[in-house]
Amino acid sequence: MENNIVEQNKTVLILGGGVGGLITANVLSKLIGKKHRIILIDKDRKYTFSPSFPWVATGVRKPEKICKNLNGLQKKGIEFIEGEITEINVDNKTVEVNGNVIFGDYLVVAMGADLVPNSIQGLEKEGNSFYSLEGAEKLRDSLKNFQGGDLVVLITSLPYKCPAAPYEMAMLLEYDCRKRKIRNNVNITLFAAEPGPMGVAGKELSGAVRQMVEDKGIQYFPEHQLESVNSEEKMLCFSNGSKAHYDLLAYVPTHKVPDVIKASGLAGDSGWVPVDRNTLETKYENIFAIGDITGIPLALGKPLPKAGVFAHYQAEVVAYNIAVDILGSGKRKTFTGNGECFIELGDGKAGFARGNFYNEPLPNVNMFKPGRHWHAGKVLFEKDWFRRWF
To answer: What is the CATH topology of the domain spanning 118-254?
Structure first.
């Protein structure tokens, strides 16, 4: 009998402590209890709530208010290992971290996209990436000394996570300039390596977001792919031959799949991890991938956007289905492609978009009228996040 109990014990390895990994671990801890092992691995014990980075950048949120220690999950029966994952063996379902090899009956790959701020020479030194906590703090400090000139928000390349973020950032920076009474001295421009804002959500929503941006006097230039940065002249040079001067530069860095994922054989032709779009299963048995690391093609020929809301819902599906497997009871769930997001406009207002991205032939996404209630909703979302998952 004792041998049977040992055989029934399962280990779930969750690789990555971002949105997807955090929720997978939490949901599993409630469903399978402490009889089975749940191990969360991340290179950083500090979890940061990335939707609040634009607030950090504009000085309305203190960094310590959006951070939690992943070690705190141990009270829920979730083991946490801090360390760099150096190898993933998909055949044996093992992971090497801190020189140790760990086996899992199930692997959930939720490592997200790596940011490459130095993808173009001079960009990291000259600009401020608001896609990391450190970058948001750097932008905040740069803003304090900025009294006028050319303020540029730049989307360097596709794909990038949180499609609303650069547009939020531009509008919040514009609001910050007005609050500090320097707006008349500032020219704000947004250059994007894409045809329009949040394009996968449809022409109507994309047009609405562009209108919000331009209504604030922000010049918007789509389809501008950055080619080089001239640090001496403070000039951005684009592949279409155009140039733009900057005095203050805020940018979205290049995103790429982590090297360890590429080496493991998990990455597909798109460069990201292909999965079953409904179950998030990879081609390897009992290995799942969720969130930004995945590449899920949609009917319109573009991939599902990289966004925390999708990682959230995918994590719940994967956790539930693993629990069904382990416990031998329950009905499996599927990821439906539903998603939503807030879009901060400044002035204490926000918009809200919601819809189904698996809808065919085109995603069906609607934008609700911006207002103060949606901004309050995002503030409450931030507070509720830490209450629910830590």
So the answer is: FAD/NAD(P)-binding domain (3.50.50)
